[in-house]
Write a structure and sequence with these properties.
0% strand
Amino acid sequence: MKKLVLFCFSILFCLAQAKANDYNEALDMIHRGDFEAALAELKPLVELGLPIALYQQGNMYANGYGVSKDLNKAFEFYKRAADRGIPEAQFALAQMYFNGKGVKKDNQKGFEYTRRAAEKGLAAAQFNMGVLYQNGDYTTQSYEKAAIWYRDSAMQNYALAQFNLALLYYDGLGVSKDIEMSYVWNRIAAFNGYAPAEKSMTLDAKELSRDQIKRGRERADELYLKIAPRTDDFTPMEWSHNP
């Protein structure tokens, strides 16, 4: 019996590895712009119901890659992938609900799917949760919760979240007012090429001593080394409120 179990397990492992290899090949084709070949590679994976393949199929329809653009079909595939726990699909679905594209507009469902994706660690969704709580959109307004979500996203190197977190520190909203920490997060966002953070950092510096600026630079550099690089790889329309 043990040999049979081990044998069956090895078959399942090989099948899973083969699916992963086929999916990675399809993803490479998408990145190269070879959409027709990618669709052919994805087809058997979609038929098997592989969640991440369902998500990519949704992307193809959402963007008109290799197929006629069809937001209704995109929604169907995103929904199937989202219900199987794919955070990128949950986030894409949230945007469709918020914007009423491919589905009837439903802000509460948009909020719920954003939350699901954020709880699974998707940086863009975490940022949007911060925006939703900061503005009190479709939920009770809370700067404290906004700061938590911004920090989670910022620690995944999401520049907009880093900038918004800096603004909260500058104004003392949801966190203790701390111009030096505002400088730190603006500096990190500036590292990532977010131009408004450069200007904001200059304003911070006017309120700090030379020693505080020196310490802020050191803290920013040290923190930046601890921040996880972003790994999210998806192409749906990114819904957000601009700060």
